[in-house]
Amino acid sequence: MAVSFYLIAYFVTTLGAFGIITVLSGSQREIDRIDDYHGMASRRPWLSGVFTAMLLSLAGIPLTAGFIGKFYIVKAGIGSSLWLLVITLVINSAMGLFYYLRIVVALFKEPNGNEDPVAALKVSLADGITLAVLTILLLWIGVYPAMLIALIQVTMGISL
User: Fold this and answer.
1) How many whole angstroms separate alpha carbon 146 and alpha carbon 68?
2) Exposure check for the chain: N or C terminus, fewer CB within 10 A?
3) End-to-end distance of the chain based on CA atoms, in angstroms?
4) Which residues, other chains included, contact 153 with Cβ-Cβ below 8 Å and sequence gap of 6+?
5) How many CA within 13 A on the CB side of residue 135?
């Protein structure tokens, strides 16, 4: 059950994070450097908020789907006495947190004065709705995971 929950939580999170990058990258230029995100919170607060939520979920911060997913994986690992895997997960999560927070900090830094790669960006209605739904799912699974857990248990035939 833990693996199924983890996969669903990270599917939503990864889809949202790469969805933001796809929306920000246009036909003229890929947004692939941390410098490209400098100051985005002041120019695109909604997209920055969604991106921040997705990155914090990938890092496993509480109240997100990523935290609940990692929690259940750690709980299953401890229950099975797989200590090396649990320690590896915790260490990798800490290292990942460093990288994800670098991007979040860049979102709130002042722009570096170079050409603004997202200035003329137009977000389509479909992109906006998709990102909104993914963000709601991310937070809903993180705050109220019981419904997804029950669905997984019913699907897998696990009795309560």
Assistant:
1) 11
2) C
3) 12
4) 1, 159, 160
5) 17
Give the whole-angstrom CA distance, residue 44 versus residue 42. Answer: 6
* pTM (predicted TM-score): 0.87
Residue 39 falls in which region: left (phi positive, over 0), alpha (psi -120 to 50) or beta: left
pLDDT in tens, 32-83: 788 888 888 888 899 999 999 999 999 999 999 999 999 999 999 999 999 9
| Contacts of 107 by beta carbon, 8 Å cutoff, 6+ apart | 37, 38, 39, 40, 41, 48, 51, 52
- Helical spans, DSSP H, in the chain: 2-24, 40-43, 45-59, 65-79, 83-108, 125-143, 146-156
Distance CA 156, CA 49 (A): 35
Give CA–CA dist 149/129, Å, rounded: 25
Residue 19 banded pLDDT, cuts 50, 70, 90: very high
